[in-house]
Predict the 3D structure of the following.
Amino acid sequence: MGQFSDDGHWWWNGSAWVATAQVVLPQLPPTEFEQSGKLEVARGRLRRTGWLNWVNDAGCFLSWLALIPHYEVLQPALRDYRLWTLEQLAAATAYLLGPNETMLAGETSLLPPEAIGGSAERDLAMAVTAAHVLLFRIDSFDGQPRWIVLVARPTDVTMEVRSWIKAGFLGSAITVSSGNADWLIRGVPGVWQPEAVLDAWRTASAKRLSG
């Protein structure tokens, strides 16, 4: 399994085996999205809505929800955060697996606070390569992939997209299952694109089975 042990529980750091659960990714290099200034534009949109304040201060008042058009401000900002996360996932995958096993597709949990009745969510993300499915934990809403939740062969994982609704908010989620464990990567319509991850996973699984 590349630089991971066959069961995904150990990672070779170049000189020793480290338990996957104990791997902490270093600060990733700035992505092209950051260097272009697009991330600051997205942060500016969120500041205008008050949402970024909500991320950092769970006690703020949400009167802005009635004043700011969701689809005109939040959705473009969320789409930008998603693109930024995909670049981070590609960098995290390259750090762990090297340049010869690149990310084919990725996706991230990305929800505004009103969708879940609490703080905003950008905490779990997934990358699919030709030989691995990796789940990462992101250290904060404005942070980066920092810890590894799961490493598995594509054939040892199942995925499906499900709809969910909470307090009138309709979204969808990729359910990732491995053994007896399940994880949900949740997103909102118009922002995320789960089909790309499922297509990459199906292709990788088919190649491994045929090989």
In short: The chain has a mean pLDDT of 85. The chain is about 35% helix and 25% strand. Residues 70-97 form the longest helix (28 residues).
